[in-house]
Amino acid sequence: MEIKRAKISAVGHYLPEDRMTNFDLEKLVETNDEWIRTRTGIVERRILKDPEKATSYMAVEASKEALETAGVSPKEIDFIIVATVTPDYMFPATACLVQEKLGAKNAFAYDISAACSGFIYALTTGATMVESGRAKKVLVIGGDKMSSILDYSDRTTCIIFGDGCGAVLLEESEDGEGIIDSIHYTEGDVNNSLYQPAGGSIRPASQETVDMRMHSIRQDGRAVFKKATTAMADVSAEMMEKHNLTADDVSWLVPHQANLRIIDATANRMGLDPEKVMVNIDRYGNTTAGTIPLCLYDWKDQLKKGDKLILTAFGGGFTWGAIYLTWGI
Ligand code: UT7
What we know:
The protein is of the alpha/beta class and 329 residues long.
């Protein structure tokens, strides 16, 4: 069977207009701008304030931009995958809502839950569908309305996250550029180092779960930091080794934006100069599944056909991995 290669043919994004700065957070919790900047690299993040709008809204806006850029009609899409941990509802999948709102009548659609690694997991799934011939045009969307699951009295989590979404269109490659390889790992987080305690079937919503703020993220920051730093650096180095790539060969590192110190450690391990590393954590914070496509969007005008990119992420689960692709636009 002939294996087709999938390539990213367009990128779209959505960022809410409202900005929450570190100084705004100083008014909510005992923190300060200097601590947040030096410990995380974050200066401000976007917040989707409209209570009527959720992840599907951002996903639809990002998708529309990608489709318009590519000149592709929603009816041509045959698969939609949304990576998110902040779906509009527990079910149906946010991807189903996106399918309906976009008018993508010919697409089947579902979500992937892999936290901050969600986008790279979804990209692998989307690419595999194209490679197998099962789908020709796929929307891969990563986005989260993190403000909906944050406890704005917990300074260890509320300063990190923001809202945002990115979408890429995947199509069959005709020029050989595209997604070359993926490496993914999972290690069940038995200690619940990063999770949302309630709202699932083990602890359905009750007065107690609401009173105890158990519908918000809980994170053991130090434990996750340690694991994320090693995991992202190791898997990126593994990908370089597997494909005999030197630091000079790699055009861009597209890292998940969780903490500037994790990004720096990954780039150092790969031997990459800082100018080859996409960083926008200062402007958007950690948008969970949104970080990588938002980087691709922000850098799209600097990317050249044939550029070699390594995407890497680590997230709740634990989940992590890396994708090696060449830019095809
Ligand atoms: O994206 C998915 C995966 N998530 C991540 O990759 C996040 C990984 N973790 C991190 O990025 C970092 O661990 C944090 C940014 C969450 C925290 O940074 P840290 O350097 O690991 O801080 P820490 O938890 O070790 O805390 C150091 C000190 C503590 O005070 P003491 O015990 O030394 O007196 C904290 O209480 O900083 C204190 N602290 C704060 N101070 C001011 C914790 N949060 C804050 C805050 N403002 N917001």
